[in-house]
Amino acid sequence: MKWYAKFLPVYEKPFAEAPAAAVAEVRAKLAERQSDKPLVTVSVIAYNEERRLLACLWSLAEQQCRYPMEIIGTDNLSKDRTAEVFEAVGLPWKRETTPGCGHARLCGLGRARGKYHINIDADTMYPPRYVETMVDALERRDVVAVSSLWSYIPDASHSAFGLWFYELARDTHLWLQSFNRPELSVRGLVFAYNTELARKVGIRTDIIRGEDGSLALGLKPYGRIAFVRKRRARAVTGYGTVSKDGSLMDSFRVRAVKALKGLGGIFSKKSEYKDEEDNLLK
C-alpha cells in the first residue's frame, strides 16, 4: 500500500465531510511534532485549499524525524474554509493579507524559528521521512538549499505508464539542468533552505511565478544548491499546473518544446535573468 493511501479519503473533499476522528488524530499528532526549540521550520502556505489542506497536514503529522521541528501555516486570504482547517487541527497560523505566493512564503519565513525553512504547498502530501531527509541534506557542508522531486496521484484519467514516462522525462531534464543552472530545477513545493540566508537574499513578491528559482539564484553565491532524488523525499501532489495545458500528453508537449528551445542553455551557467513582462505583477 502506498504511504499516502491513508490520506486520500480526505483529499479533494470538502472539510465538512472530514471524519471527526481524522481531524482529532491530525490535531493530536501535530501537537506532538511541535518543538519549542526547532532546528527546522515546516511552513505550509494555502490559498483556497480547503479540499486538500487536511490531507497535507495529516502527512506532516505522520512525519518521523529525529530533528526538532515546528510546523506553521499561512492563509493567503482564502475565500473558502482553509482558515477553519488550520484552526481545527490546532496549527499556529497567520493570515497574509497581500495576495501572492511570494507574500505567503515571506510570511512563513518571517515567523520561522528554525535554522532551516522547508516550503510546503497545501495541495501536496509528503512521505514520513521527508523532513528528516531534507534536513540531512541541508546539514551537509556548503549546502545552503535543497530541492527534491514529486509525483502525481494516479487516477482514472491518467494511466500509470503515462505518468511514469512523464515524470521520468521531467526528472531527467531537471537533473541535467541542475548541474549548471540549479535555480531552474528547484520547485517551491519541494524546496528547503537556510533561514538566515533566505532572509538576507529575500523572496520576491513582484512576480507571478518563479520566486523559488529567484531565491535559489540569490543563494548560489553562499553555497551549493543540492538535489535529493531519494524515494523517501518524493512528494505526491495533484494535477494543478499540469492540467492547465489540457491532457497529460498536451502538458508533455508544451514542456518538451520549451525544454528543447532552452537546451543549449543548460550547458552554461548564468548569474542573472531578465524578467518576462507577463510574469510581473502590476
Automatic annotation (TrEMBL):
GO terms for molecular function: hexosyltransferase activity. This is Glycosyl transferase family 2. InterPro entries: Glyco_trans_2-like (IPR001173), Nucleotide-diphossugar_trans (IPR029044). It holds the Pfam family Glycos_transf_2. Transmembrane segments: none annotated. Gene3D superfamilies: Spore Coat Polysaccharide Biosynthesis Protein SpsA, Chain A. Residues 42-157 form the Glycosyltransferase 2-like domain. PANTHER family: GLYCOSYL TRANSFERASE, GLYCOSYLTRANSFERASE. Keywords: Transferase.
